[in-house]
C-alpha cells in the first residue's frame, strides 16, 4: 500500500489556542526566526503561514527517529491569533486545515480561547495534537536544547517530574470536563479516540522533534485520501492586502491543484464577482513567515499545498475567507461567477 511521494500534497496544519500560550514562538523555534518579538505588543493580529520542507523536518527529528519515512513533501503551517477579538481568524484557519496543534500553557491549563478553538476543531471533526507548552517554566527545569521530550524528562530532578506529572494530570482532567480523552503521546494506545499531548518548550526546543514527527506521521498514516494530490484547484483567500509596488494583492492558501501565471481567476468581491488574470505568483522562502517583510520568490506555477501571494488587477474588493476559482477550458464563466459569490 505504498503511496508515491509525488502523489501526496503537504498537510495544512493550523496552530490555535489562547493568547500568549506560545503559538508564534513555537513556529519561531522551528524556523529559527524571531517573528514574535517583532509583533505589536507581542500579540498576533493576522493569520500567518510558513512552509516547512520535509528535509528540514527530517533534520529536526533525526535524533528521535532516524529511520522515519516522510512521504509528504512538507508541512504548511497556519499561525492564528489567540486574542479573543480574532475569533473570525481562528475560524478561517480551522476551516482550511487538515490537522491542528492546540497549544496549552502548562502553567495555566485550559483557558477561554483554548475551549473556543477546541470547539471549532470539533465542529469540523479535525484531528489535533495538544502542545503542552512552556515546560521550561517548571521550577528547576534543566535545559536540554531541542531534545526529544522523553530524553529531556529523564534528565529532570524528581521534584520537576512530580510537578510536571501533576500539571499534566490537571490538564487531562480539564479536557475530560470538555468531554475529551487525552493522554501523553507516547502512552497513547488509542490514537484517534484519545487525543495526544506533546510537552514542548518554544524557548529551548524540548519536544519540538516529537511535535513535528507526530504531525507528519499521523497525517500521512491516517489521511492518505485527503492528502492525495488532485488537479482540481481548491483555494481560499486568507487576506487582502495593499503592498507598495504591487497594489492590492491577495494571500491565498492553495489546498489542491496548480495555479499558473496568466490563469483567469474569479474571486468573491463585496461588490460582485471579480474576474481577473494572475499577474504574478509569489511565495516566501521556505521556513519564512508570509506575513513578515522580506523578499518573494516568483513562480510560473505553484503546486498545492502552498501559501501564495497573488498580484492581479481589480482585487480591491476581494473578500477574505472566500474561495478562489480558476476558469479552465471547460468552465463556464457565468457559472464560475455564480459559485464564487456563493461563499
Ligand atoms: P498570540 O498569537 O498573541 O495569541 O500569542 P502566542 O500564542 O503566539 O504566544 P507568543 O508566541 O506571542 O508567546 C507569548 C509569550 O510567551 C512570549 O513572551 C514568549 O516569549 C513566551 N513563551 C512562548 N513560549 C514559551 C515557552 O515555551 N517557554 C517560555 N518560558 N516562554 C514562552
Ligand atoms: Mg502569536
Ligand atoms: Na502573543
Please tell me about this protein's structure.
- This protein has 343 residues and is of the alpha/beta class.
- 27% of the residues lie in helices and 27% in strands.
- The chain has 9 helices and 17 strands.
- An 8-stranded antiparallel sheet has the order 12-11-17-8-9-16-13-14.
- Strand 8 and strand 9 form a beta hairpin.
- It is elongated.
- The two termini are 37 Å apart.
- The mean pLDDT is 95.
- Bound molecules: guanosine-5'-triphosphate, magnesium ion and sodium ion.
The strand order across the widest sheet is 12-11-17-8-9-16-13-14
Q: C-alpha Rg, in Å?
A: 20 Å
Q: Beta-strand level of the residues, as a percent range? A: 25-35%
Write out the distinct hetero groups bound to the structure: guanosine-5'-triphosphate, magnesium ion, sodium ion
SSE string, helix = H, strand = E? EHEHEHEHEHHEEHHEEEEEEEEEEH
- List how many beta strands DSSP finds: 17
Shape: elongated
Helix content: 25-40%
Class derived from helix and strand content: alpha/beta
Unreliable stretches: none
Taking the alpha carbons of the first and last residues, their distance comes to 37 Å
Number of helices: 9
List keywords for this structure.
single chain, alpha/beta, eight-stranded antiparallel beta sheet, seven-stranded mixed beta sheet, 9 helices, 17 strands, binds magnesium ion, binds sodium ion, Eukaryotic translation initiation factor 5B
Amino acid at each position: 500500500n505504498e503511496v508515491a511521494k509525488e502523489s501526496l500534497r503537504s498537510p495544512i496544519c493550523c496552530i490555535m489556542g489562547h493568547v500568549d500560550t506560545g503559538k508564534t514562538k513555537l513556529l519561531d523555534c522551528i524556523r529559527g526566526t524571531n517573528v514574535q518579538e517583532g509583533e505589536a505588543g507581542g500579540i498576533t493580529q493576522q493569520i500567518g503561514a510558513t512552509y516547512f520542507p520535509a528535509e528540514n523536518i527530517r533534520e529536526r527529528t533525526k535524533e528521535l527517529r532516524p529511520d522515519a519515512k516522510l512521504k509528504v513533501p512538507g508541512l504548511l503551517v497556519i499561525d492564528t491569533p489567540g486574542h479573543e477579538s480574532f475569533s473570525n481568524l481562528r475560524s478561517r484557519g480551522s476551516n482550511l486545515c487538515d490537522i491542528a496543534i492546540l497549544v496549552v500553557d502548562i502553567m495555566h491549563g485550559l483557558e477561554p480561547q483554548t475551549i473556543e478553538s477546541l470547539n471549532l476543531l470539533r465542529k469540523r471533526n479535525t484531528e489535533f495534537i495538544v502542545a503542552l507548552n512552556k515546560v521550561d517554566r517548571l521550577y528547576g527545569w534543566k535545559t536540554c536544547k531541542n531534545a526529544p521530550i522523553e530524553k529531556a524528562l529523564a534528565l529532570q530532578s524528581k521534584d520537576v517530574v512530580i510537578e510536571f506529572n501533576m500539571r499534566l494530570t490537571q490538564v487531562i482532567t480539564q479536557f475530560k470536563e470538555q468531554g475529551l480523552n487525552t493522554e501523553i503521546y507516547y502512552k497513547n494506545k488509542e490514537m484517534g479516540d484519545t487525543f495526544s499531548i506533546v510537552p514542548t518548550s518554544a524557548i529551548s526546543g524540548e519536544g519540538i522533534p516529537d511535535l513535528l514527527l507526530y504531525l507528519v506521521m499521523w497525517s500521512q498514516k491516517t489521511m492518505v485520501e485527503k492528502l492525495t494530490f488532485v488537479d482540481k484547484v481548491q483555494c481560499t483567500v486568507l487576506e487582502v492586502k495593499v503592498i507598495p509596488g504591487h497594489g492590492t494583492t491577495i494571500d491565498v492558501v492553495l489546498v489542491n491543484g496548480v495555479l499558473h501565471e496568466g490563469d483567469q481567476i474569479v474571486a468573491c468581491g463585496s461588490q460582485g464577482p471579480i474576474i481577473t488574470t494572475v499577474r504574478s505568483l509569489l511565495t516566501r522562502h521556505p521556513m519564512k513567515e508570509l506575513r513578515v517583510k522580506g523578499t518573494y520568490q516568483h513562480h510560473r506555477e505553484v503546486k498545492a499545498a502552498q501559501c501564495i501571494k497573488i498580484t492581479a488587477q481589480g482585487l480591491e474588493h476581494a473578500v477574505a475567507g472566500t474561495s478562489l476559482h480558476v476558469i479552465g477550458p471547460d468552465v463556464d464563466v457565468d457559472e464560475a461567477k455564480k459559485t464564487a459569490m456563493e461563499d
